[in-house]
Design a protein that fits this description.
Layout lengths: L7 E5 L4 H11 L3 E6 L26 E4 L5 H11 L4 E4 L5 H4 L4 H7 L4 E6 L14 H8 L18 H26 L3 E6 H7 L2 H9 L18 E5 L5 E5 L3 H11 L16 H12 L4 H8 L6 E3 L10 H6 L2 E4 L2 E4 L23 H7 L4 H9 L4
Parallel strand pairs: 1-2, 1-4, 2-3, 4-5, 5-6
Antiparallel strand pairs: 7-8, 8-9, 10-11
Length: about 375
């Protein structure tokens, strides 16, 4: 099931964007084998005691093989798995896989058709390539963070979404899929260097183009898409909740004004006069504070006023639109986003709950041709 059925992926366990990319492949039908650290709690984060594997949504549908990659024998075993794989995903600092004897040279020698996907914050080379960092740092350097948030406070962006997921995992997935198509024609694999700083910079292409035309001011909350305009921002309501409006096109702007009861107010006549935006925003803020979020939903939701309530992670699954489209699903009592995008002929699906650490070690090795003696030897060597 899924458009990637028959594709075999090896994901060398880590945190951040690599597991999300692996989840995308698993949702689309690929067989994803997650190579995890051989320990009771394989997560590098300091998690409380207990089995919380079912909440590791990014590992849904994967198989877990627990292995101590620091053992020399582990490298040889993994290379045997690589020889039958289509894709390898790893997210370590540059040079770590090479030290383990599992770099691109060794893996492509084992399988010349392999697509070797590498994802880091700063890339495989460059002055910062060996420095630690996280999502907030990568999007800060790329320029993607700068226009997030009001001018009167520090820049802000939704955690992990713009960098790790958008500029990282999604672009890595695009690169892997493109390379898979090429490999089917050429018979040759290649290495994908996906840097979150590169990817998040790419995501600013529209804004960079506007800025260089002189249409976009390089100052936060001063433009029509960054909260500068009164018709494209979030507003607090009487109950302390928030709504969003984004009425960019004049006909949608007119509907917003009419439905809010200010269609005849001359102060709102000039939609794109940026000099008037500050005073117009004050009036809009006062207007929206006059009703609760649900009252504004009654007035604006389902119209062309370009409106949506600002929902929390807990609220989003309960919204009627998300419920109708089954945007969120429940698996093993865990509510989670459903696979996306949607395919008409080969739909993706959540093929299983996130595995426990090492749950599929024996079945994966046996399926890859390891004999009972091979497996016993790896266990005796403390590899598995």
């Amino acid at each position: 099931m899924g458009p990637l059925a028959g594709t075999k992926v090896i994901e060398v366990g880590g945190i951040g964007p690599a597991p999300f990319c692996g989840m995308l492949f698993a949702d689309m039908g690929a067989e994803v084998v997650l190579i995890e650290r051989k320990s009771e709690n394989a997560s590098p984060l300091d998690l409380p005691a207990g089995d919380f594997s079912k909440y590791s949504i990014v590992h849904r549908g994967k198989k877990s093989l627990a292995m101590n990659l620091k053992k020399p024998e582990a490298g040889a075993a993994l290379l045997r798995l690589v020889s039958g794989a289509d894709v390898l995903i790893e997210g370590f600092r540059p040079g770590v896989m090479e030290k383990l004897g599992l770099g691109p040279d060794e893996c492509l020698d084992a399988n010349r058709r392999l697509i070797y996907g590498r994802i880091t914050g700063w890339g495989q080379d460059g002055p910062l390539s060996q420095c630690a960092g996280h999502d907030i740092n990568y999007i800060a350097l790329s320029g993607a963070l700068y226009h997030g948030g009001p001018r009167t406070s520090a820049p802000a962006a939704p955690p992990t979404l713009l960098g790790d997921v958008g500029g990282g995992a999604l672009l890595l997935a695009v690169g892997l899929l493109a390379a898979l198509l090429d490999a089917r024609q050429s018979g040759e694999g290649q290495v994908i260097d996906a840097a979150i700083s590169d990817g998040s910079a790419l995501m600013t292409a529209l804004l960079v183009g506007l800025q260089q035309q002189g249409i976009w001011v390089d100052r936060r909350q001063s433009n029509f898409l960054d909260g500068g305009a009164h018709w494209y921002d979030c507003y607090e309501c009487a109950d302390g909740e928030y709504i969003s409006v984004g009425a960019l096109e004049p006909r949608f702007y007119r509907q917003l004004l009419d439905r809010c009861g200010v269609g005849n107010d001359p102060d709102f006549a000039q939609q794109f006069d940026a000099t008037r935006w500050p005073s117009q925003k004050e009036k809009m803020a006062k207007l929206f504070m006059g009703r609760s979020r649900d009252e504004w939903r009654e007035i604006l939701e389902g119209t062309d006023a370009c409106f949506a309530p600002v929902l929390s992670l807990g609220e989003a699954p309960r919204h009627p639109h998300n419920r109708a489209r089954q945007t969120f699903v429940e698996v093993d009592d865990v509510t989670q986003p459903a696979p996306a995008p949607r395919f008409s002929r080969t739909p993706g699906a959540i093929s299983g709950t996130p595995p426990a650490n090492g749950e599929h070690t024996l079945s994966v090795l046996s399926g890859a041709g390891f004999s009972e003696q091979d497996i016993s030897r790896l266990r005796a060597q403390d590899v598995i």
